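quick one, two chains, predict together pls
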Amino acid sequence: MMNAGSGPRQPYQTYHEWYETQDRARLIAKSRDAENLFRKTGITFAVYGHADSAEKLIPFDIIPRIISGREWRKLAQGIEQRVIALNAFLDDIYHKQEIIKAGRIPRELIERNEAFLPQMIGFKPPGGVYTHIVGTDIVRTGEDQFYVLEDNARTPSGVSYMLENRETMMQMFPELFHINKVRPVEDYPKLLRQSLASLAPPGCSGKPRVAVLTPGIFNSAYYEHAFLADMMGVELVEGSDLRVVDGRVKMRTTRGYEAIDVLYRRVDDDFLDPLTFRPDSALGIPGIMDVYRAGNITIANAPGTGISDDKAIYSYMPEIVEFYTGRKAMLENVPTWRCSEEDSLKYVLEHLEELVVKEVHGSGGYGMLVGPTATKKERAAFAEKLKSRPGNYIAQPTLSLSTVPILVNKGIAPRHVDLRPYVLVSDKVQIIPGGLTRVALKEGSLVVNSSQGGGTKDTWVLED
Amino acid sequence: MLGRTANGLYWMFRYIERGENIARLIDAGLRMALTRSGSSDEDWDGVLQSAGVREDFDAVHGTLTGADAIDYLLRDRANPSSVMSCIEAARNNARMVRTALTRETWEATNECWIELKNTLAKRVRAADMPEAIGMIKRCTGLIRGAFHGTMLRDDVYNFSRIGTFIEQADNTARILDVKYYVLLPAIAKVGSSLDNMQWESILRSVSAHRSYSWVYDGDYSSANIADYLILNDRMPRSLAYSYDKIVSNLGYLAKAYGEKHAAHETAAATLAALRSRSINDIMDQGLHEFIEEFIVHNNRLGEEVSEGYRFYR
């Protein structure tokens, strides 16, 4: 919030003046109110591997993260460029593979990757769109300095928190929205539905019927699936509701089977079709891939998009962006060492105490090492894992992330954050002004994942 | 609407109804234990039977004590019919059909579950029992209020109502099934204080001990009580009232969907039978046989509804 010199940074000025007039005890009481509100609404998530499998709340911090309109515009341009490149990349590697032929990416990196689906080769999804919804994870290190951490092009989650956080802030502090011009995020569900419907398959006649596919109430993000279906006004379906009838994917309704045109699936590729992928999947729909390839359903995001946000591909993103857009990437990649390469591995092992090491195929902050905060013993143990399967890891330096204020008992304190803006792709690219700000609540921590004690806050993009 | 959603709504409301009914049975049991001089734990035998868990209880507990019976009925998660289990099942179904419910209905259900989990986290002390039972009634009342006040009167509403009334009819029929002998004229020692207490207890189990006096001018007789619970179409937990509601809600579905199923015929036949008979007729033919037959038909109706509207297949 503060400048290096003195006083609040420009976008925080109005907020800061307001904050100075507030009674801290009241704010802390409001924080608790917010928590009760979330619990009452049922905005919870399940933590995998927790003994009691209880539903947890993601802690919410009531101080908004504020981004100036000017800074946002620049960021949005960079995101748009990157998302366009992702789609072009996917189209290319499932068709002509020019980027491989040009020698920019090693063939085996694509073809030996589990996220690459041979079933998608030669197939063009409706409208040519692969990644209908993208959530780009970004960190800021200073004024206009953004790095992309991850491209989340499969099924990015968290957008319900973006919406509920805003809702909660507007309920608790209406006055703040009078004195700050905050760009709205609440039309996201409407835009999502329009965007999905606009990419109906060729086999769709009439008004496209959209549905959200969830693994069910025991999935950690079930709340979000139900929330989005509800806000869009479309059915929330499970695999057991669906079957292929007469070449269409149909859902079992109280009146019989009715066709679906666009399926926003929140089920991983592996589980989508037991006839094509994992035969033991009970979450999917046998035969849906045949319907898909026949042009009778749109699947969002398209199967096989995982290859574009794979951590092994990540380090090639600057090349990928330049290859398809003809311009240098506007957003920076975090410098990345691929441990599969001998020199890199050597460097990583020698500099473990300054690096973050991540599993190539992992997600959610599991199986990673944060060098600077790890103990000597933890580093040594990790080095062994690294040596035995180097191809499984990449390493990145820890960036000096900028911090934002959070409310603690003693007042405000700085914490590290990241940002996930949400992007909708149809015949145009729409970026919702705002996103999900995740915050590492532990002092000094860099891990923002909700499964590892991270929280969230409302994200304001100002009109200026 | 998805068949699975209709199924979820139907069971959500069956479970809410069942949970509330179990709470009412406990309430009636507590009352009886208070009223009887030299109260005994055996009173709870009938309560466990009415709740349909007498055998399951024996499998867990060796001897029957009032405290154990209450705990088993109220909060034992191993008992699928305990109040806690019912409300949890209702809430899980509500989560599953979240998109079909208004925010108000969902929040009332979720809050009911949260409050119950807190209140029933530990064994409830006898002194705190009235408060706990009151809380359960209040919570389920809030769900019902939110539901009636905010839900669109469409098929979502109809499936919820059908679940409510099939469960309600089942509950009332089971209470009669267990206690029918108290209502038999041959055995009843009319006017004895034991009879009065038993009758009072039956009426309490369906929250009808006050209204009964109004309707029958305070005239306590077994035939009147049976009439009230079976045939009176103004008494909201009677079999006749429940079937009147089931038939009208099925009727709305038939109109909206343009098709009828076996369920429509079964429900209409049951309602017609309830309307055409007098209580003396039923008592002459055999109250017990009548109730047993009713329960079988009521179960069949549930199955026909789930088949006709593709709950599972």
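The CA atoms of residues 86 and 308 of chain A lie 6 Å apart.
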